[in-house]
Amino acid sequence: MAGSSFGKIFTVTTWGEPVGNGIGVVIDGVPAGVAISENDVQSYLNRRKPFKASFEPAKHENDFVSINSGISNGITNGLPIAMTITNSSVRAKKDENTGKVFRPGQDDFTYEAKYGVAANRGTGNAVWRETAARVAAGAVAQAVLARLGISFCSYVSSIGPVSIRYSSSAVENIGANSLRMPDQEAAGEALSYLEKLSAEGNSAGGTIEVIVSGVPAGVGEPVFNKLDARLAEAVMSIGLINGVEFGEGFAATLSTGAGTADAFTFASGRFEKKTNSTGGMLGGISDGSEIVLRASVMPAPAVGITMKTVDSEGKEVDYAGTAAETTIVPRAVVVVESMMAIALVDMLFENMLSKMDAIRDFYKAD
Amino acid sequence: MAGSSFGKIFTVTTWGEPVGNGIGVVIDGVPAGVAISENDVQSYLNRRKPFKASFEPAKHENDFVSINSGISNGITNGLPIAMTITNSSVRAKKDENTGKVFRPGQDDFTYEAKYGVAANRGTGNAVWRETAARVAAGAVAQAVLARLGISFCSYVSSIGPVSIRYSSSAVENIGANSLRMPDQEAAGEALSYLEKLSAEGNSAGGTIEVIVSGVPAGVGEPVFNKLDARLAEAVMSIGLINGVEFGEGFAATLSTGAGTADAFTFASGRFEKKTNSTGGMLGGISDGSEIVLRASVMPAPAVGITMKTVDSEGKEVDYAGTAAETTIVPRAVVVVESMMAIALVDMLFENMLSKMDAIRDFYKAD
Amino acid sequence: MAGSSFGKIFTVTTWGEPVGNGIGVVIDGVPAGVAISENDVQSYLNRRKPFKASFEPAKHENDFVSINSGISNGITNGLPIAMTITNSSVRAKKDENTGKVFRPGQDDFTYEAKYGVAANRGTGNAVWRETAARVAAGAVAQAVLARLGISFCSYVSSIGPVSIRYSSSAVENIGANSLRMPDQEAAGEALSYLEKLSAEGNSAGGTIEVIVSGVPAGVGEPVFNKLDARLAEAVMSIGLINGVEFGEGFAATLSTGAGTADAFTFASGRFEKKTNSTGGMLGGISDGSEIVLRASVMPAPAVGITMKTVDSEGKEVDYAGTAAETTIVPRAVVVVESMMAIALVDMLFENMLSKMDAIRDFYKAD
Amino acid sequence: MAGSSFGKIFTVTTWGEPVGNGIGVVIDGVPAGVAISENDVQSYLNRRKPFKASFEPAKHENDFVSINSGISNGITNGLPIAMTITNSSVRAKKDENTGKVFRPGQDDFTYEAKYGVAANRGTGNAVWRETAARVAAGAVAQAVLARLGISFCSYVSSIGPVSIRYSSSAVENIGANSLRMPDQEAAGEALSYLEKLSAEGNSAGGTIEVIVSGVPAGVGEPVFNKLDARLAEAVMSIGLINGVEFGEGFAATLSTGAGTADAFTFASGRFEKKTNSTGGMLGGISDGSEIVLRASVMPAPAVGITMKTVDSEGKEVDYAGTAAETTIVPRAVVVVESMMAIALVDMLFENMLSKMDAIRDFYKAD
User: Fold this and answer.
1) Packing angle between helix C227-236 and helix D227-236, nearest 10 degrees?
2) Which of A229, A311, B116, C226 could form a disulfide with B236 if both were Cys (CB 3.0 to 4.6 A apart)?
3) What is the pLDDT of residues B138-157, one digit of tens each?
4) Among B289, C77, B225, B257, residue whose Cα is nearest residue A99
5) How far, CA to CA in Å, does A329 sit from each of A178, A209, A234, A239, B269?
């Protein structure tokens, strides 16, 4: 399968270019009988809007979704769901730079190398716009997951050098600051840091944490399609994300086997892990505890600082870029969550085929 | 596709159980005309052997490969390559524990939850044995890559809290110590650390770095099948690996856009990046610089320390496990490298279809 | 992959319902550098219009295509091509019957059984409308094939009991009659036959032949992905098509091995088959001769004749249907051709990866 | 996915060459809890043996299967099933002809064109040997289907010009003659016909019919993955099969819409079709009636009659071949049945994901 589709059973295909006629998504493999409305999808898209902060350049990116097929009377009918997303403020003009300068940190050069055509698509920015289509698909995935009692808690855990302290974090705080950080004090520090960078035309990266509750044990296939492998692929396929870890992640290497081997307990008729070093999986299969993923987001390369680079003819140029957003980390939260939701639905569906008895029950065979 | 295959065009399917009749692999989509012998494959398998250290329990795991199809007169013929791997020292007996105790950090519980059958496969250890089949497939992938001038440099960058210093590292050192660390001094410290853990029956994790040279620009698809997404999936599908990052990775979040946007230069008729913060990719597509991946390996959960857990009936037990290996990190190096090689071949092949002119050249159409 | 996508490398995903907001298609894996315009696509859609015959109910089905992404300045840019097709005359109202009566020969019942929701999608007719999206994708596939010197000759070979005679057929005739038959006399007889059926409210099936010229030898994979297997799947996925054969097809069983084993000759520096019993393939791989496929199209079940059937509550009803079209066979020609073109591009691309030397040439490795 | 795998969820991968070390198959996506033994598989392989007839050259092809993984204590455990098939009588020597003469009707030429290596695999015969691996996989698929109450009735419906008469056919007869024809008289005529051909060194083709009972309504996806499309692909991927039709097939074109639109009835609490023109499907989805498939098998090209052809240097030669089998049609029956079983399991599993309520039931979500 070519590279614009994700998922084997629950399959999401996105399309669109910044200079083209909108962007969109086709979601195939959605079961019939799921209630979903344009408003539901819109509420996820709204979480992807640039946050309004004093230091941030005014940017009106209002994405509006329309559902074209797959839903009858507010309920999925089993046919593919097609959605189109339009944005009145996206300028339908070519970025006059593109195709001339290989901007630092951006994908002008790699598009040129791969496709050999003048990459007049706005590239960097284009890639980021495509994530709106992923969020629309994620909304559908979350509608499925909600019916199975699965929910997400997602937030920003660091911006530049400013990290949250878990001891002073609370879920309620996430919505209370424009940076979606659960620690109000850290959010304040991060805002100060961002103001300073903004004044320089510079940009910041950060980390995002997602905690998924309610995933039953048994999801994930034991060899290549491990749940962590698929979630990592899903999240790493988002532009600017350059690292993914689960549970204790890289820090687990500082501990020992005795320190990270999560033991089991049995309480209220249910097996549970006493600790969760692995972040919700054992051997690539969900173990019923919370899935914990952490991703790093690179600082956006579109900065308002003049840098030396070359153009497509190899001539050295001073490239004076325009700062886009001081940080995209807060709005990337819903994108990460959406990709995880899409991958999870795909694997939950695959898991249903792991036991012959369940298959017989479905088909009511005697 | 079910979960025991990896790759879309160059497809690797593994099979096997520790208690079964060997393990094996089928590799489909191998082009005709690649020279490869059993000796070539065997040399990769040998890199996966447990290292001999004073403190390490003697464990004879000698894997021997035989090629059953797909190669005629030492050259691939276009048909699928099937290989079987046998190991004289694998005890063909059931682990008497399995199916009774849910061992801490191991996958007894998740297999039970998923398949509902007594998991008499040795699990944990089983999963690790399957990686021999991946290494055999990786050897074939590397034979393809070598023809394209692509090579790997892989090593251990940390064991527990002991990290290499880049300033005192050298490629030549990698083979000079049993831990495959390029820094001899760090290797010495790590050996002391491991001796201490070994005495306690405990185990250590660590990190692995892989640097791939010679990958041409243009490899990777721009939306979901980004090169980093596929490499992350490939590497995260290895048991005990719980984190993957590229280039500067998580540390890039501490820098800024101005600090991480790699600018281009033009020298000797070739575009090059002056720096490589992103680890060889821009927008998910290779940019011609080195691909740099870092993975974290959890400490193995099979330790010789008694821990409290429960059995499959929920009864609390004191589980006195047997330490397997004090650290698997050195022998995981070739496994990580193999999964990267497999994913790379798949994406190099897909990239060949990105330009109409190249397709016409292939078919010599006028 | 869910069922609304076709192809592994060159992937076509369609969406749409008759009562929804248009229909559409996303084509992924299109190489950059192919010239294609909305007019090109429109000309294929025009071939799918109902033909105007005296006896045929006036039906204005004017499909208009718009291209939303993937094409810059008239040239493909490597990103997915999204197209939407609108039809002013499609009535945006529910078929009031649907969901009540299980119409004979139509898919009301199977949708109900599969999705468990009232199938308010117009079913039968809906399915047929979706083929417009396939034709739009086929136009893109044919633009690729044209660059490789591959072309199609497609026509109706029988309507009901009236078959063309090859001795009195000529390619020029195909466009000269509304039934797209290469034999003018047979076309006349078929028109008389259809007039009679039309008067009764009845409908006719027929057969379609497609001959593909210019396919190089070597296309198709030798095991499951044989060229004939993939073409059969592609064509059989069209509604109402219930039979596919290649070359001499079923009639070959009346001959013998000596009669059907096509021998080779060598002329003008090129190997050729003296005969073509197999229809362009040997062992599932194209042999450089013409690919010959024949498909049977069932008579459309939507007839203007009252029939006894049951409703969804099991109550027997007299269902008085409305005749749709007396025959869809002529307009199905371009649909069959389109599906073959889509499958062919996918397999031509896969074939490029069969030889290591060609891969090295592409990557200019030394 | 490369071409040696079939199926998306229930995935079968075959490998092997006639001159290599046996052949084999890996079956992934088998649910845990299915009882299956080597004897079960062997009984299917035995149906693929060449039949013993006076006129047939003695050919000892005794395939023996061994199961290497995926089954514990006679029950599938969810891991991939690997099986190897050995045949003591397969001569481990090169066919000295291969690589020199392009034999009429065989795939020497297409392999050479595709892979560019001397095709020393025995080709034609090789391809046919690979079908043993498909039959082994089919045995596993049938074990799954049996648990769902689905069964097959398969037979030869014609050999050369000799067809069975349905009026004088009976299921009991199928096993009563070596040609697997349900009509004893036709079987007698066919044997006489084959004796005559055998004396000449010639070969015969024929047709095979398969009737599948017990398939529930709802199986098959409505767009590209129609049940008939997937079954056609599965069966057409068998060497020498060059035509597939469902229900009335090509003959339906001689009837009309009124004659072929199957109406529904309701009896014993169950919806049923009164007739079955379409062969068990409506709109590509199973309708609960019998699935009826008919396939044509070309006469084998390996005949003992000297024919003019060319060698790989283009020089004309008189090729004196050796007759292999006068007809492979009877032993192809179980191969066709096996491919249908494999495709059916894949689609039954996919169908389980079509309704949200069923998914909730599986996960016991409230």
Assistant:
1) 160
2) A229
3) 999 999 999 999 999 999 99
4) C77
5) 11, 11, 17, 12, 37
Instruction: Write down which chains contact chain A via at least 3 CB pairs under 8 A.
Output: B, C, D
What's the CA angle centered on C355, arms C350 and C361, to 5 degrees?
100
- Between vectors from CA B71 to CA B69 and to CA B73, what angle results, nearest 5°? 130
How much is the pTM?
Answer: 0.96
Residue type, D333: V
- The residue of chain C with its CA nearest to that of A81 is C15
d(CA C301, CA D287): 15
How far apart CA B122 and CA B104 sit, in angstroms, is 14
Q: Are strands D264-267 and D241-246 parallel, antiparallel or unpaired?
A: unpaired
Of D32, D222, D355, the CB nearest to A31: D355
Which residues contact residue B364 at a Cβ distance below 8 angstroms, ignoring those fewer than 6 apart? Answer: none
Q: Which residues contact C308 (CB under 8 A, 6 or more apart)?
A: C316, C317, C318, C319, D263
Whether residue C175 lies within 8 A of chain B, CB to CB, comes out as no
Which residues contact residue D167 at a Cβ distance below 8 angstroms, ignoring those fewer than 6 apart? Answer: none
**Contact B15/D22, CB-based, under 8 Å?**
no
- What are the pLDDT digits (tens) for C225-278? 999 999 999 999 999 999 999 999 999 999 999 999 999 999 999 999 999 999
Long-range own/partner contacts, residues C72-75 (CB < 8 A, 24 or more apart): C72/A17, C72/A19, C72/A117, C72/A118, C72/A120, C72/A121, C73/A120, C74/C35, C74/C36, C74/C37, C75/A117, C75/C32, C75/C33, C75/C34, C75/C35, C75/C36
What tokens were used for C24? 């559409």
Which pair of structure tokens corresponds to residue A50? 């640039």
DSSP B40-55: HHHHHHHTTSPP--TT
Q: Do B27 and B50 form a contact (C-beta atoms < 8 A)?
A: no
* Selection from C3, C20, C24, C131 nearest residue C80 by Cα: C24
Check if D118 contacts C (Cβ < 8 Å). Answer: no
Predicted pLDDT of residue C58: 56
Q: What percent of chain A stands above pLDDT 90?
A: 80
Cβ contact, residue pair A32, C120, below 8 Å: no
Share of chain B above pLDDT 70, in %: 89
Q: What is the pLDDT of residues C194-239, one digit of tens each?
A: 999 999 999 999 999 999 999 999 999 999 999 999 999 999 999 9
Amino acid at site A168: S
Query: In sequence order, what DSSP letters do the residues of C130-198 get, joined into one string?
Result: HHHHHHHHHHHHHHHHHHTT-EEEEEEEEETTEE--GGG--GGGGGGSTT--S-HHHHHHHHHHHHHHH
CB A126 within 8 A of CB A233: no
From the CA of D243, how many Å to the nearest CA of chain A?
A: 28
Q: Residue C218, by phi and psi: left (phi above 0), alpha (psi -120 to 50) or beta?
A: left
Q: Which of residues 33-52 of D touch B (CB under 8 A)?
A: 33
Cβ neighbour number for residue D57 with a 10 Å cutoff: 13
B188 at interface of A, judged by CB pairs closer than 8 A = no
ipTM, 2 dp: 0.95
Do residues D79 and D69 make contact, with C-beta atoms less than 8 angstroms apart?
yes
Closest CA to A297 of A269, A335, A268: A335
* Unique residue bearing structure tokens 């005749």: C323
SS3 category, B118: coil
Q: In this model, does residue A294 exceed pLDDT 90?
A: yes
**pLDDT the model gives residue C94:** 46
d(CA C294, CA C212): 12
Cβ–Cβ < 8 Å for A334, A174: no
Two tokens at C106? 């139509």
CB pair distance less than 8 Å for B296 and A130: no
Report chain C residues whose CB lies below 8 A from the CB of D260: 105, 205, 298-299, 301
CA distance B121 to B108: 9
